[in-house]
Amino acid sequence: MNLKKIIYTLAISVLLFNCSSNSNDDLTPDPDPNPDPDPTTKVTYDANVQSIINNNCAQCHGNPTANGAPFSLVTYTSVRDRVDAILSRINNASSPMPPSGQMPSANRNLIQQWKDDGLLEN
Description:
Elements: H1 2-19, H2 45-56, H3 76-81, H4 83-90, H5 105-116
């Protein structure tokens, strides 16, 4: 009888641990995050980056900020001025932004491409 309880407890524990995860599989990319933009088309804040920031960052980095976020990312200027810090954090696997898990590489690549293209607004 005691062995039966141990087996049930072990089975339930295994099921519980297998049903929870800390993976990025459940993070969905923003709508139409063209991972391979046409090289002749420049990535802009209005067309590409703003939706990524709004969907992944504005919950905390809004106006007003929440959850201890030290600054707002709701305008082109605020994002442009902090692009290096943003890229550093979104590419940091050990301490990613957003804290829920690293955003999809397609979004991270678009923000990098935006910087490389000259931080165009529109």
